[in-house]
Amino acid sequence: MKVIAMLTVSLVAFFSTGALSQSTDTLINVGNHHLHFRVTSGMGMPIVFESGAGNDGSVWNEVCERLRQHIDAPLVTYDRAGFGTSEIDTNQIDITSEVTNLQVGLKQLQFDGDYFLVAHSLGGNYAMKFISNAPDKVKGAVFIDIVSPDFMTAQRATQTKQLFIDSLVSIKKESIGFYHLVLNYERTSEVMREISKSIQTPLIIIASGKTPFEGNDRQLFLDGLRRFAMDKKNRKYVLVENADHYVFYDEPDLVVNEIVRLYNQVNE
């Protein structure tokens, strides 16, 4: 993974944690390929996790372990197409089809009611698309250092994609999922910008003081995230000054507490 690890400074890096206890791993057929899900059983509305760019579902293992100490909800992590042990349909791979496939997989797992979402970084784009597809079913969400619509303009999305263009051959050999993520980056960002204003779901937006960007871009990232958080009255903004982009690694208890607080609030 050397090439991708060096290239993802402006997006994310590859991280993993230890095995999650009391969980079940399964491959679900969502049409032309299978997605890998890890489900920790529980009662009530499931909490579904969306990872950032370059990550599979294992980044959430510690958060799920800690959450289980406070809440008995089903916890669902998964690997997006082409990441982890999930397969990929290279003939149909974009944010719209990926979110549809996620929803198909959740239904096959018998999760066809209300949902609570937790998303990190680029995973916020997919979570917003999920909410857009099922606004009445998503009761709340916690967004962690997501890419905001104000920050990821069309111009910036193109510039971000260009960072990887010269290394696409190497990226494709190392991660077919990341390869298609790069190819679709502009469209993924465009969809996020198109639907972001329509999001009415209660949100907690957690921002890191040490964003994945530096210099002026760091402040622009934070300003954009704060504006997104302040856009609706049912949103809460939490700035974690000393945390890096992976806030849930640096401050897992804070993240877990915010998830539990909003989950209980929207479940009342």
Structural descriptors:
alpha/beta; Rossmann fold; 11 helices; 8 strands; 42% helix; disordered N terminus
Please give a quick description of this structure.
The chain is of the alpha/beta class and 268 residues long. It contains 11 helices and 8 strands.
Kindly describe this structure.
There is one protein chain. With 268 residues, this protein is of the alpha/beta class. The protein has a single domain (2-262), classed as Alpha/Beta hydrolase fold, catalytic domain (Rossmann fold). It contains 11 helices and 8 strands. It has helices spanning 2-7, 61-67, 95-108, 123-133, 154-165, 168-174, 176-183, 185-196, 215-230, 247-250, 252-267; strands at 24-29, 34-40, 47-50, 75-78, 115-120, 138-144, 203-208, 235-240. An 8-stranded mixed sheet has the order 1-2-4-3-5-6-7-8, sandwiched between helices. α2 links the parallel β3 (47-50) and β4. α4 packs across α8 (185-196), α5 packs antiparallel against α8 (185-196) and α6 crosses α7 (176-183). The N and C termini lie far apart (45 Å). The model is unreliable at 2-21 (pLDDT under 50).
Q: Main sheet?
A: 8 strands, mixed
| Overall shape | globular
Number of helices: 11
CATH superfamily: Alpha/Beta hydrolase fold, catalytic domain
N-end to C-end Cα span: 45 Å
Q: In CATH terms, what is the architecture?
A: 3-Layer(aba) Sandwich
Low-confidence stretches: 2-21
Q: Any idea how many domains? A: 1
Helix content range: 40-55%
Secondary structure layout:
Blueprint: H1 2-7, E1 24-29, E2 34-40, E3 47-50, H2 61-67, E4 75-78, H3 95-108, E5 115-120, H4 123-133, E6 138-144, H5 154-165, H6 168-174, H7 176-183, H8 185-196, E7 203-208, H9 215-230, E8 235-240, H10 247-250, H11 252-267
Parallel strand pairs: 3-4, 3-5, 5-6, 6-7, 7-8
Antiparallel strand pairs: 1-2, 2-4
